[in-house]
């Protein structure tokens, strides 16, 4: 370890949201923490769900974390550890490096294997309302930008077509408006692809876009 610079700390601070993001994704039974490897005070600088091991910001780096740092892998294999109260944890450690390839931090994830199964499943499931909101556009896991655009256009077209509150004469414009709000028209050749997918002229697409952007 070495004394960290201001730019090293900038990198670590930029990763604090990742701690919260992983914890939000995997729920209350997953502890996520960011270790600072400053030689002056190697300690936790960010932690989520710290009640799993009883730690908080400022707690010292663990012996296992130091072992993983010295293994030579930037992403460790998953390993089993024990929390102070005896519960079993499935853990993973990722080394964070600066531009000089010096290790400046560790991102550690500890999953509580002894958590009750029902509670574990509940924490992984989004609120039921997420599944019931049919106004939300389905996320598109496309292999390329053209596929993503085609899928997005089709999703929005189906939503608008099935919405009887939108007059037939307004549906094309509503589709273009929603695609615009999704940022589809920031992509190359999107207007041509939309025109073909909606079976309207590209001039109509451009007219709608001028009207939308003028408001």
UniProtKB/TrEMBL annotation:
It comes from Photobacterium piscicola. InterPro entries: DauR-like, DauR-like_HTH, YheO. This is PAS domain-containing protein. It comes from the Bacteria. Residues 12-118 form the YheO-like domain. Residues 153-210 form the Transcriptional regulator DauR-like HTH domain. Transmembrane segments: none annotated.
């Amino acid at each position: 370890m070495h004394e960290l610079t201001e730019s090293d700390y900038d990198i670590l601070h930029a990763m604090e949201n990742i701690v919260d993001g992983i914890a939000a994704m995997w729920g209350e039974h997953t502890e996520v923490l960011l270790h600072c490897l400053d030689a002056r005070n190697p300690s936790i600088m960010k932690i989520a769900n710290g009640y799993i091991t009883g730690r908080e910001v400022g707690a010292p780096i663990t012996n296992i974390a130091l072992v993983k740092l010295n293994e030579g892998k930037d992403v460790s294999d998953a390993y089993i550890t024990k929390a102070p109260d005896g519960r079993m944890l499935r853990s993973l450690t990722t080394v964070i490096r600066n531009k000089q390839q010096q290790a400046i931090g560790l991102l550690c994830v500890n999953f509580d294997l002894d958590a009750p199964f029902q509670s574990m499943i509940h924490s992984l499931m989004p609120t039921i309302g997420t599944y019931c909101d049919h106004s939300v556009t389905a996320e598109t896991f496309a292999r390329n930008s053209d596929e993503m655009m085609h899928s997005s256009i089709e999703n929005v077209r189906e939503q608008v077509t099935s919405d009887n509150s939108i007059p037939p004469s307004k549906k094309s414009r509503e589709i273009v408006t929603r695609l615009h709000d999704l940022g589809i028209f920031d992509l190359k050749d999107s207007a041509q692809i939309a025109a073909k997918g909606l079976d309207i002229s590209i001039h109509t697409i451009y007219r709608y876009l001028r009207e939308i952007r003028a408001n």
